[in-house]
Every structure is written in structure tokens, then in C-alpha cells.
Amino acid sequence: MSSNKVHLAIFASGAGSNAKKIIGHFNHHPGITVSLIVCNKPGAGVLKIAADHNIPFLTIEKETFFRGNAYIDELRAYNINFIVLAGFLWKIPEKLIKAYQGNIINIHPALLPKYGGKGMYGSFVHEAVIRDKETQSGITIHFVDELYDHGDHILQVTCPVYPSDTPALLAQRIHALEHEYFPATVEKVVMEKKNAGAL
Ligand code: GRF
Fold first, then answer.
1. Per the record, what is one GO cellular component (predicted)?
2. Which residues contact 6 (CB under 8 A, 6 or more apart)?
């Protein structure tokens, strides 16, 4: 019965490959369903993914997100009780964090606390890692608080960085890790909360 399920919203600004993996993972899942895609970029690839999977989407704009209701009423109208950020580039306003306290998670394509914060997204992250001659990078899945890339860590997974790497090559390796670990981690966190009666 879908009313007993946890309803996820995925927030994404880009291509949406992680969103796609998460949608696939929860297809026919007994306890969790992806009910909404939220996107701040008209024309972003993730919107086509939503349409292909018959998932409703909400295209949001800055004024309402940062100075209005942060779309909390709309999220409630879709019964959303957990938010997954998968390549969403805007900072989450305090109002929304309070409304979903402890129930928002993000994935970052590096080993936080290094290579995080404002401006550290996409290829900027991988360029910085390579420029600093790091020998490993990876992914961080973490709870979201008021600061960029700052909340408690849930999982980190590492991968090597090779001297011959380009940002594009490293990005591919990181994306593969994200696709492997993010859906299952979302499931684990959500089901633990659900079973504890916290969702
Ligand atoms: C991922 O690398 C994620 O870590 C970062 O943005 C990227 C999104 O990729 N926050 P995609 O849109 O899921 O393909």
C-alpha cells in the first residue's frame, strides 16, 4: 500500500544519472518510492528521466526557494518525507532543513571535508584533486545541514587517482562509485529510520 511507503523527492540540477539509478533501485520496492523530481534548471537531463519514468517533477525558481516557502507546501502535497540531493547545486535554505530535519542527504564527489564547499562541484572538484596530486579520491554521502557539504557523514568510499588522470577520467571513476553505492545507502538510511518509527 503506497500510503505506508516513504516518499522520496530527488533534487537534481544536471544530467541525473544518479537520479536514474535511484529511481531504478526503488522500482517496485515495498517500502520506498520516488514520488517527485525537483530541479532548478529548465531543460536539465534529469527532467527527461522523470518524464520517461512517469515521475512528476517540479521546476523551482530562486525567489520562492530562498525567500518564499522553499516549496515546503508543494513537497507536503506530494507527501514527501525524505529528500535526496543528487547533483543539486543550490544551497538548501534553513526553512527546508528545519522542515525535514535529519531527513535530507547529499552525495559529494570527493572525500569531504576536503574539496567541499561553495564552488566545489562537478569538474572543479576533480580538477582540484588532480592539481593537488592526491593519490586517492572518492565519494561522501552525508546528512545535510545549514552549511555546504558539512553534515554528518554516512559513508565514504575511496578510489585511486592516477598520475595520468584527467578530470573527465576521474569523474567517470567517481560516477561509477556513486551509482554503485548511493541507491543502496539511501535505502539503508531510509529503512532504518522507517523501522525506528522516525519516518
Ligand atoms: C555527481 O557527481 C554528484 O556527486 C554531484 O553531482 C554529480 C551529479 O551527476 N553532486 P548526475 O547528474 O547524477 O549524473
1. cytosol
2. 31, 32, 33, 81, 82, 190, 193, 194, 199
Listed range (45-54, 100-109, 124-133, 143-152) with the worst mean pLDDT = 143-152
Confidence (pTM)? 0.96
Could you say which of 25, 29, 108, 153 is catalytic?
108
Assess whether pLDDT exceeds 90 at residue 2. no
Query: SS3 of 37, please?
Result: strand
Nearest CA to ligand 1 atom 3: 87
Ligand 1 centroid, distance to 193 Cα (angstroms): 25
Question: Which of these CATH numbers, 3.30.470.10, 3.40.640.10, 3.40.630.10, 3.40.50.170, describes 6-122+139-157+181-195?
Answer: 3.40.50.170
Would you call 108 a catalytic residue per the annotation?
A: yes
Counting from 1 in the atom list of ligand 1, the atom nearest the Cα of 18 is 13
pLDDT in tens, 165-176: 999 999 999 999
Task: State the cell numbers at 146.
Answer: 545549514
* DSSP labels, 163-191: TT--HHHHHHHHHHHHHHHHHHHHHHHHH
88 CA to middle of ligand 1, Å?
A: 8
| Residues with C-beta less than 6 Å from any ligand 1 atom | 12, 14-19, 86-87, 107-109, 175, 178
* Alpha-carbon gap, residue 159 to 162, rounded angstroms: 10
Distance 120 CA to ligand 1 centre (A): 12
